[in-house]
Design goal:
With about 450 residues, this protein is of the alpha/beta class. It contains 15 helices and 17 strands. Bound molecules: iron/sulfur cluster. Iron/sulfur cluster binds next to helix 12.
């Protein structure tokens, strides 16, 4: 995506973004932060952004369990660079905090990713943000939620540094620094964000009938739509709107900064089941949306492919597009490459005989399905397999034959839907295998 003279003329302001490349991942993270906070060309008259005496929360992405180098979680060396920078910049406190997705133990995930080890080595405190009571934060100019519950520890800090992995995402196109803020929400609130309905469509719980426009993906075009239950504005999903609202709420709560970890990005079935892509790059900006626009461009995305970024721009939370970003170095696009998308088509190509019914599922069960298919199911012998995930899946035709996955489908299963039920929130893939094995013939699963 190139910045043209015309597009610059339309910018009310320019947003500074730094892209730093190198194989020493701790060093490039530190360098990017030095440039952003103290560099001569930081667009903020270096020194105005004071780090001395500030309490800094480093928020990596360890929502899913993954080893270093797998791109599932933030590279621990990037965290190390951030810790070293803020200590050198005389922050009064540097703390790492995370709240994993439902079904994943945060500290276990931090341990697996190597982030906990680095935090210990560098001598900083670690918070499981789920252990704190929530506070309700109002959303200015709400698109779908008036307020959002955030872990109360967030308000104790002067700066939150979002350190996501540069990943594709099966529901939101990509997950970057804006979406990474969702890790600061309590578990129940994370789930709520995946089960939102448009106000005009939502009925009181006892009266709510089958989702009128719920998503059923099957056969060649398997998909894992989670929140596409609304009937009004078809351009944006409820989750996209919720992410933009969460970012608005954060802007009123605490200053934020983006350090996007593109050392190892993830392409394909992100955010939990994709493949690592070595990029050796980090992206830093005082504006999360600006950093995300630049990261998305490096991944080969057009803005329309990541709707929550467009919505954030429409809400005035940063630049309207990447053309309003002043990026250093000027030839930054040479560092990019096109990431394989987490599209339904991709899944359909790999597993042509599988039908997936998904309605109001979150990334937990969806990633379980991807992991199960990748780990256990032979690609050639998967006919007749129907999998259902999400609270609304039981309302869809065809779910009678489905293996119902996750606690959200329990009610439908009790009402006679599905051939088998797999308990868990989310269940582990091996349990899915056990259930599938009882439903398919031996030839189909061997
Ligand atoms: S059961 Fe699955 S879809 Fe439902 S909240 Fe848990 S992980 Fe998400």
């Amino acid at each position: 995506m190139k910045r043209t003279t015309e597009s610059v003329a339309q910018c009310e302001a320019m947003y500074s973004v730094w892209v730093v490349h190198g194989t020493d991942h701790s060093k490039i993270a530190e360098n990017a932060l030095e440039l952003a906070f103290f560099g001569a060309a930081n667009g903020l008259e270096g020194g105005k952004v004071v780090t001395r005496g500030k309490k800094v929360l480093l928020k990596p992405n360890a929502g899913f369990m993954g080893e270093p180098g797998s791109a599932v979680a933030t590279n621990p060396e990037v965290l190390r660079g951030a810790i070293r920078f803020f200590k050198k910049a005389q922050a009064s406190e540097v703390v790492m905090g995370e709240g994993a997705i439902t079904g994943v133990d945060t500290l276990e995930s931090l341990e697996r990713s190597g982030l906990l080890k680095v935090a210990r080595e560098e001598g900083i405190e670690v918070l499981d943000m789920d252990a704190f009571p929530p506070v309700w934060v109002p959303v200015p100019g709400p698109l779908i939620i008036d307020s959002v519950a955030v872990s109360s520890c967030v308000g104790d800090f002067d700066l939150v540094v979002s350190i996501p992995v540069m990943k594709t995402h099966m529901y939101t196109g990509a997950t970057l620094s804006v979406k990474n803020l969702k890790g600061c929400l309590p578990r129940r609130e994370k789930i709520r964000m995946h089960q939102l309905m448009e106000a005009k469509d939502a009925l009181p719980e006892p009266e709510r009938g089958p989702a009128a426009e719920g998503m059923r993906q099957s056969g060649q075009a398997v998909g894992l739509g989670e929140d596409q239950t609304h009937t009004g504005d078809e351009t944006y999903h409820t989750l996209d709107k919720a992410i933009a609202d969460i970012f608005s709420a954060f802007r009123g709560l605490v200053p934020t900064f983006a350090l996007v970890d593109g050392t190892f990005g993830m392409e394909g079935f992100g955010p939990g089941g994709g493949s690592p892509v070595r990029m050796d790059t980090v992206i830093a900006s005082h504006n999360l949306l600006a950093a995300d626009f630049v990261a998305a461009s490096l991944m080969g995305f057009e803005p329309a492919e990541i709707p929550h970024l467009t919505l954030c721009a429409e809400k005035g939370l940063g630049p309207p597009n990447v053309g309003c970003c002043e990026v250093w170095p000027s030839d930054w696009m040479r560092l990019g490459r096109r990431f394989t998308r987490a599209t339904p088509d991709l899944m359909g190509q790999v597993y042509p005989g599988v039908t997936i019914i998904a309605d109001q599922a979150c990334s937990g069960c969806s990633s379980t399905v991807v992991s199960f298919l990748r780990s256990y199911l032979p690609k050639e012998r998967n006919e007749n397999l129907v999998i259902a995930v999400g609270r609304g899946a039981g309302d869809h035709p065809g779910c009678e034959k489905a293996v119902m996955i996750g606690n959200c489908t329990a009610k439908a299963y009790k009402c006679g839907k599905g051939r088998a039920f797999v308990k868990g929130c989310p269940p582990v893939p091996s349990r899915v295998l056990a259930a599938v094995s009882t439903c398919l013939s031996p030839q189909e699963t061997e």
